[in-house]
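Give me structure tokens for this 288-residue protein.
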Amino acid sequence: MSLRRTTLAACVGGLAALGIVPFAAGAPARSWSSRAEEARTACAAGEVAKGTRLLAKLYATTKDPIWIFNQGRCFQKNGEPVQALARFREYLRKAKTAPKDSEAASGVSEAEGYVKELGAKIAAQNEKPAPSEAAPPAPVAAEPAASEPPVPSPPPATPTVASTSAPRPAEEQGQGLLVAGVGLEILGTAALVTGGVFSYLVHKTNRDANNLTGEGKVAQGADLRVKQADGKHFATMQWVFYGIGGAAAAAGITLHIIGTRKQSGGAKAELQPAVSPSAWGLSLSVRL
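Here you go.
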């Protein structure tokens, strides 16, 4: 594709070398002919965006409408009539103010011809009706022969549904109860061991108190009171931990049994508190 050349390019290139024509700040000084050649190469290669962008920079610097004309040619040669028509009209609008004998006005008649050609082409495309799809012919049902009885159609096949084995809720619940039971058993065992430790401390404290008063010894009042207070405290703590350990162990064993049985068949258990004025406890009943 050949872009329209302008004598202004060579002149401006020479003036720029002399420092008369200003460039954008920081831009490298190169001739307009090299820029025009780069734009022409881009448009010929189908790089419309690059080519028109270079031409726009040339117009922005030189204010010569001929670069707008070349933008229209770039769009036209690459099959974009709407954008080409817009650029040719913009060129004609700006070229009207240029002198008639100038390079900018030399392409007016050519641009007017392109405007007519592109306008007619776009109008024809807009008026062209879309191809209508012919409706397919209706299927004709074949009639059975008179000598042959109609054959009944086979019954529809029953779709086969692949069975997937979903996890049974009872087994999942049994596994959860089993885990909880083991945890409570461990907790109960720890509490019972702690209660045993306090039982040892009770016996040791009582033995120390007896040593303070035994065999004719005169016990100091403060020491004896401390030992007696420690003994009462240790005695209370041993029964507290024995109660917690027993309850946790009983509950853990119950959940352990229920969880195990639920995974294999099922079991029922009841854990009821037993309270009296002097004691308390738990009543466990398991039915397998």
